[in-house]
């Protein structure tokens, strides 16, 4: 396809915004259709943590390394509207209500928190504010001519040959395109009614955002935390450049509501995270909470994203299932998908491990509800 290829992207999260940025930058007329809001789901509520080499030894390694590089480049090129921040990253453990002094702690942590390792340096770990990153990329795409539209996709429109040539919206409107990309996170599963797509599940995460100001330095933290009940949680603490600190600890695998606006937290999840935070850090204990959040990350049966053309349907593509690494891998995904669509192949990342056809397509009879 040429740079004049009309591209329709279904989904306004980080993956959709990144694809839109790279396709529009090359002059391809690009339309992004989002049902709820740009960055309205996980792309606005995730941690935004970036790591250069944490995927080493896996099929994701090259994608992650290229994306980590692109994050730095995009921040510099676009004026850093999303608070790109290099971090030192630590690992450790804590036990609820244990006030015994732990060796190797950090000044902003309670004395019962033991730091056992340094997991990353400012050269290998970083952070972005995810909502600002996603909306910033979308604005950059719009500056190159991309269009962001509100609408609910209810069908794939095909030519007589069976090739994709656009999508139908709930309003009855047809949005035409030479290429259609499904980038709807866990809601991509709804398109299995019209495309042979593998299952995409929703992994629900809960988080709190504290207003910490300058009380926590540029230090990310991954802990193993034992509650008084004996249950083990794995909190992650990410202090952002804007003076807020994001903390998560509780995730569950459960059905995804048809409408992203209906995502709600599990009962008691936020209270448990708040109690944990008050226990591990005086800085968090003193900070007001500015947001209580829940979102679904998209995951696949084998843990790898779906990235590539859809088998048997010319002009149809998918990019989803990035799990906890969606924010990290969005830039390289956008670059690779733009190359695949416009040049016929990705140049910098091998997409073969992520080919949708590696997994069996979902039987549409297993879908519940409707996409309208």
Any overview of this molecule?
The chain contains seven helices and 20 strands. With 372 residues, the chain is α+β, with helices and mostly antiparallel strands. The strands form four sheets. Strands 5, 6, 13, 14, 15, 16, 17 and 18 form an eight-stranded mixed β-sheet that branches. A six-stranded mixed β-sheet has the order 8-2-1-12-20-19, covered by helices on one side. The two termini are 31 Å apart.
| Total of DSSP H or I helical runs spanning 4+ residues | 7
Contiguous uncertain segments of 5+ residues: none
Helix content: 10-25%
Q: How many strands in all?
A: 20
Strand content: 25-35%
Order of helices and strands: EHEHEHEEEEHEEEEEEEEEEHHEEEH
What is the strand and helix layout of this fold?
Elements lengths: L6 E4 L3 H12 L4 E5 L7 H4 L3 E3 L9 H17 L7 E2 L1 E8 L18 E7 L4 E3 L2 H14 L3 E4 L2 E6 L5 E6 L4 E3 L2 E4 L18 E11 L7 E8 L5 E2 L2 E4 L4 E10 L15 H12 L1 H4 L3 E11 L6 E4 L6 E5 L5 H18 L29
Parallel strand pairs: 1-2, 1-12, 2-8, 5-14, 12-20
Antiparallel strand pairs: 3-7, 4-7, 5-6, 9-10, 10-11, 13-17, 13-18, 14-15, 14-16, 16-17, 19-20
